[in-house]
Amino acid sequence: MERAIRFYKNAKHEWYADIPEWGGDIADLQMVEGADELLNWIATAESECKLLMADAPIESAEILDLVYVREKNLGGGGDYLLENFRGEFKNHKLWLCQVTEFVFKQLPERIYFKEIE
Q1: How many domains does the chain have?
Q2: Under 8 Å CB-to-CB from 100, ≥6 apart: which residues?
């Protein structure tokens, strides 16, 4: 499955995913625990970016590997590892909440992503 998702930064410099069909609280769409830092790397000085995300390989993509599935009482979703980013070793850990399962209909073992226009 592939999906283009827009991410934007609000006036408080907090990152959010733009997922119009999400029926839950807007707070669930906030990117925290390392995901915000990754978006800062991607967007550099911009306040938004758009990513093509997939649970199968896509050309020229960065890769997030699932390292831990969180229990629902710990926010659900999973902890992922970004070993390399744009050719540089990062070993960056980040959390993607239960919204990831909503988008992909599962919690992917591996998420491929790249910036798109």
Answers
A1: 1
A2: 77, 78, 107, 108, 111
Q: What is the pLDDT of residues 12-65, one digit of tens each?
A: 999 999 999 999 899 999 999 999 999 999 998 899 999 999 999 999 999 999
- Separation of alpha carbons 52 and 42, rounded Å: 12
Give residue 46's region: left, alpha or beta (phi > 0; psi -120 to 50). beta
> How many Å is the Cα radius of gyration of the chain?
13
Residue 66 is part of which domain span? 2-116
d(CA 63, CA 21): 25
